[in-house]
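Why predict the complex rather than its parts? Because the way molecules touch one another can change local conformation, and only a joint prediction can capture that. The input here totals 1238 residues.
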Amino acid sequence: MVTHAFFKALLFLGSGSVIHAVDGEQDIRKMGGLKKYMKTTYLTFLIGCIAIAGIFPFSGFFSKDEILLHVFTHGNFGKVYLILGMLAALMTAYYMFRLFWVTFHGQYRGGHDKHPHESPALMTIPLVVLAILSLIGGLIGIPEIMGGNHALHHFLSPVLIRSTASQAMVHEVSHTAEWILMGVATVIALMGILMAWFYFKSYQSQKTNTGVSRFFENKWYIDEMYDGVIVKPLQSLSRWTEKIIEKSGIDGVVNGVGRLIQYSSNKLRLLQSGLVGFYLFMIVAGMILLFVIQIWFNKF
Amino acid sequence: MNAIVISALLGVLMMLSGLFFKRSAAIQWTAIAGSAILLIGSILELIPAGQNKMFYGMLELHHVSSWFNVLMSACVMLYILLFHRSIAKVGRNDAEYFALIFFVMCGIYLMSMYSNLLILFLGIEIMSIPQYIMAGSDKENIKSNESALKYFLMGSFSTGILLMGITLIYGATGSFDLLSPKFTAVFQSGADPSSLAMIGVLLLIVAFGFKTSSSPFHFWTPDVYDGSPTAFTPFMASIVKVGVFMAFIRLFHLSFIQMASHWQLMMALMIALTLLIGNITAVYQQSVKRMLAYSSIAQAGFMLFAVFSTNQTAWDGMMLYSVAYTLSTLGIFAVLIKMKDYTYDGFKGLGKKEPVLAATATICLLSLAGIPLTGGFFAKYFVLNAAMEQGLWIALIIFAVLMAAVSAYYYFKVIMSMYFYEGDAELTEESNAVEKTLMIMNAVLVILLGVMPGLILNH
Amino acid sequence: MLILLLILFPLLGGILIWLLSDKLASIAALFVSIVVMVLSLVVYNQYHHGLHEELIYQQPWISQLGATFSIEISNGLPLLMVMLTGFVFPLIIGAWYNKPIEKASRFYGLMFMAQAGLMGVFLAKDALLFYVFWEVALIPVYFLSSMYGGARRIPVTFKFFVYTFLGSLLMLVAFLYIYQQTPIHSFSWDSLVSTGKSISPANQQWLFWMLFIAFAIKMPVFPFHTWQPDAYEQSATPVTIVLSAIMVKMGLFAVVRWLLPVLPDGVKYWMDVVMWLSVAGIVYASCMAMVQTNIKRLIAYSSIAHIGLMAACLFAPNADYLSVQGAAVQMFNHGINIAGMSIIVGILEHRLGTQQLDEMGGIAKIAPYFTVGLVLISLANIALPLTNGFIGEFMMFNGLFNADSKYRVWLTVLAGLGVILSAVYTLTMVQKVAYGPLKTTSMGFTDLELNEKIVVILILLVILILGFYPKYLLELVNI
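Output of the joint prediction:
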């Protein structure tokens, strides 16, 4: 998780830097060839990509490897999860490097009026720091077979009291299996990178995608689906809840108590009619009532 | 005896001073000096422990009552210091007004020291009759006349009930003397009292309930407190009411404690009703003076807890409540009497215009609402604690704190008017430096009681 | 003696500042607040080196009652809260240093009285003293938010006041009840804890609600929360920060100190109900936050959601108190983050004169420093790893999932949903404020000034340092 944070943050900041460089353009089809304009961003972004793809010795390798290992040892469906995990790793490597090739290699496809430029130090310094952390971050979690000591686990030990149990479980897996898994993971990641390189090495935006590719290009229409199925209904539900439950319901009850007191105050003050006869009547009536209650309950 | 004699003599002296002095200032100074002598007299009488019998066993000065007398003398001195100019302005007979105050004090001392039901009756009457006059002292004001008449009519009615109760108790015991063997044989033997005695005790509760403005016998209170001249209302609402409570707790805790189960239910119902009617009705009032009248009913509900709970904490609570409530009431009325408009709107902008007045009023209102670091908090705290010590009546206590939250509503409305709303609070007269110093002193005392309530509990 | 200064210094400082002229008030306030911060650091140092005798102060108070004036830092939680209280005030005063405040001396005077009260709440080891401070902290805040703020501030603050006052009176009744059961009639924490255990379960069950409602109103836990969005929206932002960063923590703190150990059977009986309430509150408040158009209301609801998670975790029974530790860490970090968030929002509100999200947009183009602060604090607020918010949230989820309750999976899933929603509305808010086309209503925005830069950088430093290296924080909560 923590190593993931390193390179995720790195990639976010890197893309921020890229977007800054091309004056707010976020469409990668209008970028390309940025390598020669922004060296620092290029390098750090590359590190981030390699790390997220999970290539040795970058931090992503160890964490991903460890996760796969955990999954592998997890119950009966371990194998199935493992395969799914491997597939996901492949896809990750593929799409990250697609992004990388398209953005930084090939020709610059933005308009000629725009001049890409490197970001200021304010942006690049965190990039470099995070890149270094991504690079070495893995080392603090190096598996035991490589002589590592899981510094991170010690670092977070108060947090991860419970994870020591699963840690013990991990060690039951034979070291051979661990080596094999590592190898497989690396190979898969490399495959993904190669695929991306093959398709997008010299990407040209003029090509129109059709069919499946188009479907993918629109991110499977997932955004639209999210918007229609989750976000919109949730928002209208929330609006309704705010109006009915929050304002009229809960707050209505709270304010209602206040209003009830006001109302009963208005009614009760009518007892104070100003007529002495009425007062005396009330005093006597109250007296008799209280006496009756007191004496009645005395008997029990 | 000191306090009783001095206050009675002072009453006569004040009446005569009207003949000797033509200037009102001289009369006022005599009254202030008189109250100082009264205070010294009651201090000299202070006894650290035990009790002194006096006047052929008709009076018994308990160490608590001696301390209570000192506190009340101090309070009445503060009252005269704060209000003497306003009292003199009520009408032409300024000397008589001060005389009435000292007569009332005489009644209060009798009520805190009696050990005979006849003295109790005397005390209540000596305390009540001057009040009827005070209520009607603003002769040109029809409201003042109305309130005096109402007070008198209903007061006589309650006197009848009081006498009835005393008579029935006499019938059951054959004695007025609370300490006589005949009396204690009936009430403190542990046996169930006869129904004659029981009805007598319940009638006494009604009479006391009337004087302390507990529901359902409170009906005179708003009309009288609202109609009386503002200079006298704080006196009636604080010192007098507290004095009656002292007589109440004294009789029921010293004499009728063995038969507590025979009157506690009635008292619990009275507490619930008093709190409910006092607090709820106060919410709707538009005039601060009338609101304070209802609030004094509500506060009586809390003080009834002290009578209700038959333990030592209740005595502490009663002492603390007496002083804290008296100081707070005097403070808020000292501000109120300067206002031209008694409605909430009339207070708008006072915080900017008169910071000292507004701060005093705020501290006193916080104390009445029972916010910590003011005397009012510990007062409420002690009486509720006493009731909790009693056990079994937790629902009543929860109800009481709910009502305390309601009371915050109307007290804070005044604070909101003073500080948060723009306005031009008009005053009838500027308060001078002495009055401001006294007000600050009053506020400081209220806070001091809220930090160290032990100051008045050590006795 | 040292910790007595934590209360006395702000109290006396507040009174002195009130007497000063308005011009001098800001600088004096900054000075006092920094001294208090340094004091809290000194106290931390003492605690760290195990010098506990300096961290206890006792005086007889009301002997008739067995109440003592006893304050103590007995473990890491009060220390964390004291440090939070110490840190937040200089940040507020620093950020408002360049902004005009009407009657500044009165304003800062009341602020420091509130600080003294808050310190007292966190330090008190005596139930009666705790109650007194609990109310005393409320009164200055009541005056502050009634005097400074939006048009509807007076009724809104009043509702808040009466609501919390009602709750605390119920708390008083519960304390009185337990006090009457103590063999030596004492209000001290120890005797309350030892007596509370022996109260019959049936009585603990109703006592639990008396205490819990008082604390729940303060936190606030759904459905006792309706005062909060209004109060946040209408109060002046410095007061909102005191409310949101510190005062709401009073409720959580009180649960840990005065509810969990005192009424164990009551807690055991009702914890599932409370956890469901809290978790329902997370989702509910997150949904509310999504549709808010007022940025301060949005933050109010997001705070309800975050507090809901902490509340649920406090009641989640764990063998090793993992979730309570997580909540303790988060109480501190949430305090810092919400203070940062509110300072950012306060700057927005001050420059633009509006709280409406619709009228903001494209600020990133004209104010890069501001935007960096906004983005990073928002990320910390949604508990991104490497920010301070992460560590506590991780521990809390870990604890909630491993809780000894049959609903643990459902509770964790719902709470997790709340976290996702929190990312949604926070980032949407950031996007609306900072990105998109520059709106005409936002044209006049100017970037951070020097004092604001310092404050924002300090907050970011705390966020990042504690995010990268939470060791010292975690040490403190090792119960």
